[in-house]
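Retro notes, item 3 of 5
We never archived the inputs for the glycine complex last cycle. Fixing that now. Sequence and ligand:
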Amino acid sequence: MATVRLDQKARALVRAVPDSYERALARYFGEGPTNVPLARNQHAAYCQALEAAGVEVHILDTDHAHPDCMFVEDQAVVVDGIMLLPTPGAPSRVNEQPPIAEFLMKALDGIQTCTMGGEARMDGGDIIRLGNLFFVGRSSRTNDLGIASLRSLLDFFDYELRIIDIPPHALHLTSITSTPSDQHILVPEGYLPKDAFGVLPEGSEIIWIPADEAYGCNTIGLSNGTVLIAEGYPSVKQALEQRGMVTVELDMSEIRAADGSLTCCSLFY
Ligand code: GLY
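Structure as it came back at the time:
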């Protein structure tokens, strides 16, 4: 999700909500899901919104043995025809990866694929991309060895990577930020230092959002100019619309309950 530019967001892999979803990890925004049918309805609306914006959506079979398996963003990083399969930071989520990897290897026939070894850990949810500038969160899920693996991949392209330290009260970089366009980063006040992103390319802007709308800072910008946003975050909606973006609101309550955000639920490839 976060690793492709807007113009590359043509195909998304998603994974359906498992029966075991109520046991999904939840520690930050969420207190744990309680309503699997509602989660399924919200996930279906999410897939429809992607399709309505022109994205080809592939729904991978769910895996009832893995309560977090719908959060596919964490399991692979696809950058301009190279794929990194990170070792996820949560041990309970490591075995979600093989079917996702298998699907992507088939879909992207012949794609060059790198894996991580040793103690390297990374969740794809710790990466955002602003054009050809990348940011990675150093978090409870992503360590320095994981970041070094990502850097090796980005070095193929001469893409710059900047590290953002994620505060202990947030899960991932994408939990609190996103790039609704290739020129904008949404960030909640009080979570990151004002200079955390460094000097941005000319024409780019950080949009600061009140801290009580931190969850709303996760959005999906699509190539047709539409931005998917979570319902109930008026400052986010207004900030994007003031800048000419067209927003589509989605009820994310049961996905937020498992610390999941919009980007977590898809993997663009
Ligand atoms: N529940 C999503 C995660 O913790 O990875």
